[in-house]
Amino acid sequence: MRYLLSCLFLLLLGCSSIAPVSLTNQSSERDNEWRIENLEDSGLDVEKMQQLTQRLKSGWHPNAHMVLVEYGGKLVYENYLSGEDESWGQPVGYRVFAADSVHDLRSISKSVTSLLLGIALGDDFETALSRPIIEYFPEFADQVAPGVEQVTLHQVLTMSAGFKWNEMVMPYAYEKNDERRLYDEPDPVQYALTRPLHTKPGESWYYNGGMTMVVAALIEKISGRPFLEFAREKLGDPLGISKSDMEWRGLGIWRSRPTLPSAASGLRATARDLAKIGSLVLNEGRWKGRQIVPRAWILASTQRHMEQSFPTIWSLYGIYGYGYQWWHGNFSGEYGDFTAITAVGYGGQRLFVIPEKKLVVTIFAGNYGNGIWRMSEQVLAEIVAAAP
Hints:
Elements: H1 2-13, H2 46-58, E1 64-71, E2 74-80, E3 82-87, E4 90-96, E5 103-104, H3 108-121, H4 126-130, H5 153-157, H6 178-182, H7 188-193, H8 209-223, H9 227-236, E6 246-248, E7 267-269, H10 271-282, E8 286-287, E9 290-291, H11 295-301, H12 312-315, E10 320-322, E11 327-331, E12 338-345, E13 349-354, E14 359-365, H13 375-385
Antiparallel strand pairs: 1-2, 1-14, 3-4, 5-7, 6-7, 8-9, 10-11, 11-12, 12-13, 13-14
Helix pairs in contact: 3-8
């Protein structure tokens, strides 16, 4: 009965053609330095993982595109499916996914941008966090609203700067959504920093993609390098991520900042490459014995700095708090009891890092605008249940 209901649900969504191609531990010459292990030898509960595979295949978890699991430092599970997809908001039709498929990360882009800022700031970042953001952008000092001189980099990163911003209520397809408006501006940083204040800086949380654009521009100022050049050299190359496997949409759309892509939502990458980033975070900034991101930044940026001041759906009923462009989830009840460092992207994109379980779970999905906003967390719960 549950299977029939699931199929009916998929038909109602117009996505009944999902037909998974289950390729566990698909090999790739490019990733031969990454330890890959058979699921049967991994230590995960094979029966529970097989049940997950069948549920993904049947559509029990609707519109899943790819699910990867790293456990104990080894890639132990890969499931590539198929279905309708988008590229930065534009429908691209039905896709069959594989290890080399590039997919939207959406707002997971914000978390990757945070890692890049940590690299740019280096070990001595505490002073920078407490510094007023406008000191980094003196060219706008005479244009900002009263009180903006008090907004710190810490508040920019935690989405608590207090700027008037319309992104959480207005759909992204609407022109009055401020992130949508951001792309029509000649300078996104100027637009984000010269908005009036709506609340006192540091007082409350409000999702604001404009703040991520400010962070991206700050990376360019600190490093003296174009954003993408810095990202590829300092993060992509050390992780073995080729230029063709990671693209950042939005490059060149701003006349005054032609080197900035959409740092808030434009990143596209393969599931394996996002999983590598998760492994980097799990290992406190290290990859293959090399410190890529300062350990102190990983610990600081993935903490819960903003508590339960979010609307219900945004916090997943109180599970999530917010760090420096990372979400921090305290799961319990139906999900099990664990803590997950999480990067969240629209449509069901997720990167879960669970240190206590030595797990990294990467999920790509196509749930854009259909109201299915808990699917990825439900898949995660099944994987966590399979871990000792």
